[in-house]
Design goal:
346 residues; seven-stranded parallel sheet; three-stranded mixed sheet; 13 helices; binds iron/sulfur cluster
Amino acid sequence: MTVKFNSQKPFIIPIFIPHAGCPQRCVFCNQSSITGVRSKLSQKDVRDQIEAFLKFKNARRNKVQIAFFGGNFLGMPEDEIQRLLAEAAEYVKTRRINSIRFSTRPDTIDRKRLDMIKIFPVATIELGVQSMDERVLSATKRGHSAADTEKAIQRLKELNYEVGVQLMVGLPGDTPERLMASAQHVAHLKPDFIRIYPTVVLAGSPLAAWYRKGDYVPLSMEEAVSQVKNLYLLFKSENIRIIRMGLQASENLENGSTIIAGPYHSAFGHLVYSEIFLDMAVEQIESSALNTDSISIRANPGNVSKLRGLRNRNIEILKKKFGFESVAVRPDDALAEDQLKVGRLT
Ligand code: SF4
């Protein structure tokens, strides 16, 4: 198995607009609890936030974007869309940022709105797709269809926007088979990048009531990691970047009252990578026919902790599975990010 990892990221200044422009509440969603933002942002709030983030910009990141997240951007009233875009565009004019990005629902991508935003320096549009399975879309009360997503991605690509797709695993009505078919459908549409979120039960969301009544059972952590890993490998094989796996850790999510149940982990992406590295190590050990009880596994220095797994979990699994006395992990600059080398411990 060959897996290429991508580390080039723009510097993103997030501006949260929780539930702004949402036509209804999707069952799994409570943006106010995820983002901690509860009121509408004034012009001053927006500017203060941008200025605060710009102070942290790492000199190595050459691309900077202002991003409007947490709502349905193009579902907002026209004057509000224009107000926020004009505010952000000022920073592009003065060259302190490069471009704007926002997240919106697929059913907001129409000619009228695209005409309205074309005068602004928007480079990236993220679509809240979540699933391409009509049964899942209907169970989660999304209110749009897979055909809306198809049309939206095609239109945005024709206009040369960078297109992102957000997908969720563990949604009501979903199964591993439906999820995989959904991901294949998305891969076929060739977006530029993907975010994958496991469904968690957020306090104050409609899903919380379903969970309490026993009408919704979240995925276990193991199931979520395995399903996200399968999506990761599928999109990688299609050369589609995965820019995030799991919710962004925040004080708000960690305080114990925001997430009622479900596979939340502050390092969810790390768990997925660790499982991928474990699979790679197992595959190599099995095919290398090493006759030894002590092995070394070399990996690019950036991947050593992924190979070890959280609290050395992978090392323990390998010892148990193959009866090794010791498994030494060695950093090796000569190896690419997607390579491991298993050998006898000398
Ligand atoms: S998922 Fe998107 S459209 Fe649905 S309620 Fe949340 S922010 Fe609004």
